[in-house]
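Priority: medium. Attachment 1 of 2:
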């Protein structure tokens, strides 16, 4: 859809009047007025893979995304005064951005924090560093076995070195005291505000703890949701069963399905690969759930009328899950079969995705942030990785997302990644044959809710994207968001 001008009238946050205009956009809000030929109406965006609660919480945890070394992470902790009930927790460190790419160990933390437990999650959410105090509380020592689907990394003497991968993370994270009810509500509201700010009117919230569902349903009944939210509930250990959660549809809130993890992340070498890592010759990654477990959990989900969304990064994980969906393919038009990330495929998988009606939930920004790290990990397999054009040419249904807060939730950064495919540390396109055209990228990002009811769901941005240099797409700013007839974000007046 081409951006256009309109006459808009708002009173008390509610839309009263909307009509296309030829020459400029005019917005009246409670008697105030703005008129401009540089304000363009667009459909609202969707983000089909994110974490609302974590997005809202990020401001209250220590953020290491800017750190260029482990020493800098330590400095950031020292400067912050944030502790969660006497635990020091934080997230966002990325050793791939450091001069020394080795994973850090607990030693650096132990000297400074001998008595306070510290737990720091890597940027991908699939790896964490714990200090000795945190390991002691979680009863992890030299004698501890690796849990299924996880790994406790060790020093040569067999003692844990502080790095925990995938399911091993739970051993510590479950010991961190949980947030108060009012904090939980505040984080969800903050997350929604952040999304509204960048023009998102629909989002798919992934791996949502069953305890948060009640809060969402409560907010929905008070018309306090700022997006249409489709939830995929935590199901790795059948959590949704313990809370008797079923498929559900409210006004702006829906329990659509369950979320499973087939493997870990590429950065922390947890992605499950058919052949060993190119930079680690006897490491094949972690199958958090194997084929049989995935099949059983998927069958249970179908019995509960749930759609299925499974995290798959490595080619082995994608192959396992494609096999599960193939086996269950008689349900493929009743239930949605999703693969989250679908990053490393093989030459046959795109066609299988198409044949078995498997939706690929893609985060274009992961590609431009991981490109060079992925080349190191994958060698030649890079040719079958981060496929967009190929999936589209195979008629695979693609859902766009960001995996916020792991990557920015701003859809324009995602659209720019789709179109330009230029890694963050580079100024040249990377595997540009897999980039996609602007029209297509936009049509993926526009929420169908908005396309079907534009009058009540639109955003106002400060440039016409079709008249903007492709390299400047990510600089376009959203100024105003309307969802379901109500203003959810406004910086115009
Ligand atoms: Zn995610």
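Attachment 2 of 2:
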């Amino acid at each position: 859809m081409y951006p256009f001008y309109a006459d808009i009238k708002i009173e008390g946050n509610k839309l009263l009047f909307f009509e296309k205009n030829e020459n400029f956009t005019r917005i009246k809000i409670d008697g105030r007025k703005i008129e401009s030929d540089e304000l363009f109406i667009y459909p609202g965006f969707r983000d089909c893979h994110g974490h609302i609660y974590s997005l809202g919480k990020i401001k209250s945890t220590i953020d290491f995304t800017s750190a260029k070394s482990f020493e800098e992470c330590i400095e950031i902790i020292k400067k912050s005064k944030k502790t969660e009930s006497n635990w020091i927790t934080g997230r966002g460190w990325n050793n791939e951005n450091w001069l020394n790419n080795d994973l850090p160990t607990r030693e650096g933390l132990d000297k400074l924090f001998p008595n306070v437990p510290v737990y720091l999650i890597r940027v991908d959410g699939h790896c964490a560093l714990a200090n000795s105090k945190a390991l002691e509380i979680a009863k992890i020592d030299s004698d501890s076995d690796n849990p299924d689907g996880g790994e406790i990394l060790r020093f040569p003497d067999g003692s844990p070195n502080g790095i925990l991968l995938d399911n091993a993370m739970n051993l510590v994270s479950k010991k961190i005291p949980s947030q108060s009810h009012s904090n939980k509500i505040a984080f969800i509201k903050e997350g929604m505000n952040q999304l509204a700010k960048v023009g998102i009117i629909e989002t798919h919230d992934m791996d949502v703890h069953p305890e948060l569902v009640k809060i969402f349903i409560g907010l929905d009944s008070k018309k306090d949701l700022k997006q249409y939210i489709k939830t995929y509930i935590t199901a790795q250990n059948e959590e949704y069963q313990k809370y008797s959660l079923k498929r559900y549809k409210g006004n702006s809130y829906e329990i659509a399905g369950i979320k499973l993890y087939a493997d870990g992340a590429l950065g922390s070498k947890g992605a499950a690969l058919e052949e060993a890592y190119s930079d680690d010759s006897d490491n094949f990654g972690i199958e958090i759930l194997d084929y049989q477990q995935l099949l059983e959990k998927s069958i249970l989900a179908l019995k509960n009328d749930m759609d299925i969304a499974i995290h798959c990064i490595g080619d082995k994980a994608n192959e396992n899950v494609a096999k599960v969906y193939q086996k269950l393919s008689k349900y493929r038009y009743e239930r949605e079969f999703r693969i989250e990330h679908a990053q490393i495929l093989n030459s046959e998988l795109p066609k299988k995705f198409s044949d078995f009606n498997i939706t690929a939930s893609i985060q274009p920004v992961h590609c431009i942030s991981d490109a060079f790290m992925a080349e190191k990990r994958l060698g030649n397999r890079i040719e079958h990785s981060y496929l967009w054009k190929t999936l589209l040419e195979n008629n695979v249904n693609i859902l766009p997302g960001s995996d916020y807060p792991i990557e920015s939730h701003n859809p324009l950064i995602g659209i720019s990644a789709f179109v330009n495919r230029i890694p963050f540390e580079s100024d040249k396109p990377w595997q540009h044959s897999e980039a996609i055209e602007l029209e297509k990228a936009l049509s993926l990002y526009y929420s169908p809710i908005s396309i079907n009811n534009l009058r009540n769901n639109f955003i106002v941005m400060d440039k016409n994207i079709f008249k903007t240099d492709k390299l400047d797409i990510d600089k376009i700013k959203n100024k105003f968001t309307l969802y379901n007839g109500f203003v959810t974000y406004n910086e115009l007046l």
